[in-house]
Design goal:
CATH class of one domain: Alpha Beta
Largest sheet: 11 strands, mixed
Strand order of the largest sheet: 1-3-2-4-6-5-10-11-9-7-8
CATH superfamily of one domain: Amidase signature (AS) domain
Helix content: 25-40%
Order of helices and strands: HHEHEHEHEHEEHEHEHHHHEHHEEH
CATH architecture of one domain: Alpha-Beta Complex
Structural class: alpha/beta
Radius of gyration: 21 Å
Distance between the termini: 12 Å
Number of helices: 15
Low-confidence stretches: none
Length: 471
């Protein structure tokens, strides 16, 4: 059920938060052995909080807080005081968070009940949740396949019916791509709309927390609760400083067709073309656009992101917190701790990031990637003068079989439509657009709507008109 349905029943008393919470943990017990969406669950605390919420609904009814009694799962790179925050890495296997992330504080204030920590690619580096130090997560729609990543555990938790809401983080598509693979809604906000305080950083200029839900209306509600200025995060922006991006009755959608020239499965492209027909049938306008710099986005991203990874992960040295491996001297402690604590993908990105930031290569690689990033922003600004929204497939393929993308470059290519969004800081929304068949199983695929800077509300309006209205 979605939040609106649950809240209606909670207010009417036809279902109580206590009874629903028992259902939540029953689903987890029944399904998660095969799926491995959760690294940890907080059953005792959650049921106690549900009992309090049940009593509160009896007193307050419709005046109760917006998320009162609603179970929420958190990706395990988001700090929850007193609970493990591992980022699915051995180097933080026993790290206990000492404070709540800002978004957690806001969710709690709205009455949400945090019921568990979800699996992820280690330090959010990956697109399949196969890079977790604690085993891969499987797609609940077909457990031979991946759920996407890096927020695969959060997407799987929603898709298997355990929770109506899970929070992920999106650095290059890590909310939207698993939303596509698992057939749920995923939203990446405008950069700065949501505080990063209390998120374990991967790429500081790229990371944003976003919801995974069953409906766009739920994603909008959760986002509005989490967003807003935060004194603890200087990158957050006040809502009254947003540009004016109006909501309309009908929209002009821009389609960068040359962007689809290679690498998109034919049946995914067929579903996408059918979606464009649907948009025009209900009165929207679809036009072709050119985004030549976007085609360089994937290359630029895999320079900028590893550079920030190299910097952010330098703090995990075996001295201050996390895993510490003994050595004969300080350097040996550093080396041994990082060798034992980090997985292969994390090491790969640290090495690549250190290389592109090194003397003699900074200008050749990192400097040029940042120049591409600037040009991409300028290109978008021009395009949004003529269209209201850009539309693409969320991912070029449906969920692939576990272990099928062993080549890192092949894995990175799954991000081709999502990484330009993070590089430019604009918002994007992924909603299901249909299914394609693989090995006799219908697998969901998503459509991605990209808005101008500050156009979060416009994307929610588009999503509600084009997806929620069909449910």
């Amino acid at each position: 059920m979605n939040i609106t349905q649950l809240r209606t029943q909670f207010i009417a008393g036809t279902l109580t938060p206590t009874a629903y919470m028992e259902q939540v943990f029953s689903v987890i017990a029944d399904k998660d052995t095969a799926v491995n969406a959760f690294l940890d669950t907080y059953k005792a605390e959650a049921i106690e909080q549900a009992k309090i919420a049940t009593a509160q609904y009896a007193e307050q009814g419709a005046l109760a807080p917006a998320l009162l009694g609603i179970p929420v799962a958190l990706k395990n790179n988001i700090l929850l005081q007193g609970k493990k925050a591992t980022a699915s890495s051995k180097i933080l296997e026993n790290y206990i968070a000492t404070y709540d992330a800002t978004i957690v504080t806001r969710l709690k204030e709205a009455g949400a009940i945090i019921i568990g920590a979800t699996n992820m690619d280690e330090f959010a580096m990956g697109g399949s949740t196969e890079n977790s130090a604690f085993g891969p997560t499987k797609n609940p729609l077909d457990v031979t396949r991946v759920p996407g990543g890096s927020s695969g555990g959060s997407a799987a938790a929603v898709a298997m019916g355990a929770v109506p809401v899970a929070i992920g983080t999106d650095t290059g598509g890590s909310v939207r791509q698993p939303a596509s693979y698992c057939g749920v809604v995923g939203f990446k906000p405008t950069y700065g709309a949501v505080s990063r305080y209390g998120l374990i950083a991967m790429g500081s200029s790229l990371d944003q927390a976003g919801p995974l839900t069953n409906t766009v209306a739920d994603a909008e509600l959760v986002h509005e609760i989490m967003s807003g200025l935060d004194p603890a995060d200087a990158t957050t922006i006040a809502e009254d400083t947003y540009p004016n991006v109006p909501v309309k009755e009908t929209y002009t959608f821009g389609v960068p067709r040359s962007f689809f020239a290679s690498g998109v499965d034919a049946d995914v492209l067929a579903q996408f073309e059918a979606k464009l027909v649907e948009l025009t049938a209900v009165g929207h306008t679809v036009v072709d656009i050119e985004l030549p710099m976007f085609e360089a986005g994937l290359a630029a991203y895999y320079i900028v992101m590893p550079a920030e990874v190299s910097s952010n992960l330098a703090r995990f040295d075996g001295i201050r917190y996390g895993l510490s491996a003994p050595g004969d001297n300080l350097l040996a402690v550093y080396e041994n701790s990082r060798a034992a604590g980090f997985g292969a993908e994390v090491k790969r990105r640290i090495l690549l990031g250190t290389y592109v930031l090194s003397s003699g290569y900074y200008d050749a690689y990192y400097g040029k990637a940042e120049l591409v990033r600037t040009k991409m922003r300028e290109e978008l600004a021009e395009v949004f003068k003529t269209v209201d929204c850009i539309v693409t497939p969320t991912a070029p393929t449906p969920a692939f079989v576990v272990g099928a993308q062993s080549d890192p470059l092949s894995m990175y290519s799954q991000d081709i439509f999502t990484v330009p969004v993070n590089l430019t800081g604009v918002p994007a929304l992924s909603v299901p657009m249909g299914t394609v068949e693989r090995d006799g199983v219908p697998l969901p695929v998503g459509v991605q709507y990209i808005g101008p800077h500050g156009g979060d509300s416009r994307l929610f309006d588009i999503g509600k008109k084009t997806y929620d209205s069909t449910l």
